[in-house]
Amino acid sequence: MTSLPPFQTVLDEHSAAVMAILQGAVGRDGAEDCFQETFLAALRGYPKLTDASNLRGWLLTIAHRKAIDHHRARGRNPVPVAEVAEVAAEDGIPVPDGRLWAAVGALPPKQRAAVALRYGSDLPHAEIGAALGCSPEAARRNLHEGLKRLRKELA
Amino acid sequence: MKTETAIARFKAKAAEEGLLDVAYTTADSPFGPLLLAQTKRGLVRVGLPNQDQDELLVDLSERVSPRVLEASAELDEVRRELDLYFEGKLERFDLPLDWRLSGGFRQRVLRAINRIPYGQTRSYTEMARKAGNERAVRAAGTACGSNPIPLVVPCHRVLRTGGSLGGYGGGLPMKQGLLELEGVLDGESKA
C-alpha cells in the first residue's frame, strides 16, 4: 500500500490543473466555487483513500462531478463568458477567445469535460477516461464528438 | 480568477469545518528556519533547522493524519511566543501541547522535562528517576533525542551528570546557544 502524501503536496501539484479544467467546464465565474467544493470533498475523503497511485485522476473525477452539479443547479444553461479577457495565462495554458470559450461551455457535460481535459490540461485519453469515469475509448469518442460540434459551431 | 485566492478560500473553509487535522507553518529563528505543526489538541511537532521539513511532514501524514495543510495564521500564537523566547522576553510557554507522538516511558520523561524551569538544567539520571525508572538513563537520553516538540519542551536543559552538554537533535551549537540565551552558560564556556 502506498502511503498518502501530506494533503498540501496534493494541493501544490494539482490545483492548477483542477482550476484549468473547472474553468473550461463551468466558466470563470463558477470555477472558484467548484474549486472550493472539489478540494473540500477531496480533503473530507482523503484519509480513507486506499490507492494513492492516481491522485490526479481522483481529483479530476471529483472536479468533474462538481462541475456537473454546478450545471444541474443552473439548469444546464450555457455559461455566459462574453467578457473573458484575452490575456496570456500564467500557467502556460492558453486562454481561448470568448467565442471558443462560450462554445466549449455550451457543449454537453461529458464532451465539455473531455475537451477541457484534453486541451486545457493536456491529459492523454486514458487519464481523461479515469477522470470522467469511463473507458479511454469512450473518452476519445466524447472528445471527438465535442470537437466536431465545436468545428460546426465556429465554422 | 487567481488560483491562490481560491486556495486561500478553500483553506479558510477547511479550518471552519474542522478539517485541518495538522496545520503547519515555518518560522524564522536565530538558528535557522523552524517547522511548527499543530493539531486540534495543540502543538505536536517542532522541526529544528537541521531537520528535513518534507520528511517531517510525511511523518506527520503517516502518524497523525494525511490532512496536513500549510496554514500560517493557525500558528500565530506559537510563532509569537517563540519570537519572544528568542528575544529573551518569555520564560514560560503557555501553549497547549499534543503528546501523541511519544508514548509510555518516553512521554513521562518529556513531561518531566517540560517542568524544568527556564535557566536551570537537570541530568539525564534525574529525568529517568522522575519518569519512574532511575536506572533507565540511556532510555531517558533516547527520549530527549526523540523529543517531537523541542524548544517548547526544553530538552536542551538536560545535561550529562557532571555538566557536559550531552547531545541535541538540532546540533550541539544550538544547544549551547539556547543555554547561553537562558543565562546558564556564558559565551566563553566550552562543552
CATH level-two architecture of chain A = Up-down Bundle
Identify the overall geometry of chain B: globular
Question: Per CATH, what is the topology of the largest domain in chain B?
Answer: Double Stranded RNA Binding Domain
Integer-rounded radius of gyration of chain B = 18 Å
The main pleated sheet of chain B reads as:
4 strands, mixed
The CATH superfamily of the largest domain in chain B is known as: Methylated DNA-protein cysteine methyltransferase domain
Query: Structural class, from helix and strand content of chain B?
Result: alpha/beta
Q: Sketch the topology of chain A as an H/E string, one letter per element.
A: HHHHHH
**Strand percent estimate of chain A:** under 5%
Number of helices of chain B: 7
Low confidence ranges of chain A: 79-87
Mean pLDDT of chain A: 80
Please give the alpha-carbon distance between the first and last residues of chain B.
Answer: 57 Å
Query: What gyration radius of chain A follows from the Cα positions, in whole Å?
Result: 15 Å
Using the 3D structure, state the CATH architecture of the largest domain in chain B. 2-Layer Sandwich
Low-confidence stretches of chain B: none
Based on secondary structure, the structural category of chain A is mainly alpha
Strand order of the largest sheet of chain B: 3-2-1-4
How does the overall form of chain A come out from the CA principal axes? globular
> What oligomeric assembly is this protein in?
heterodimer
Distance between termini of chain A? 51 Å
What would you note in describing this structure?
The complex is a heterodimer of chains A (155) and B (191). Chain A has helices at residues 7-45, 55-73, 98-105, 109-120, 125-132, 136-154. Chain A has a single domain (7-154), classed as Butyryl-CoA Dehydrogenase, subunit A, domain 3, CATH 1.20.140. Chain A is mostly helical. Chain A contains six helices and no strands. In chain A, 43% of the residues are buried. The radius of gyration of chain B is 18 Å and the shape is globular. Chain B has helices spanning 3-16, 53-63, 76-86, 104-113, 124-130, 137-145, 172-181, and strands at residues 22-27, 34-38, 43-47, 68-70, 122-123, 158-159. With 191 residues, chain B is α/β, with parallel strands linked by helices. The longest helix of chain B is centred in the N-terminal third of the chain and has 14 residues, at 3-16. In chain B, 34% of the residues are buried. Chain B folds into two domains: 3-86, Methylated DNA-protein cysteine methyltransferase domain (Double Stranded RNA Binding Domain), CATH 3.30.160; 104-181, Winged helix-like DNA-binding domain superfamily/Winged helix DNA-binding domain (Arc Repressor Mutant, subunit A). In chain B, strands 3-2-1-4 form a four-stranded mixed beta sheet, with helices on one face. A two-stranded parallel ribbon of chain B has the order 5-6. In chain B, α4 packs across α6 (137-145) and α5 packs across α6. In chain B, β1 and β2 (34-38) form a beta hairpin. At the A-B interface, α1 of A face α1, α2 and β4 of B.
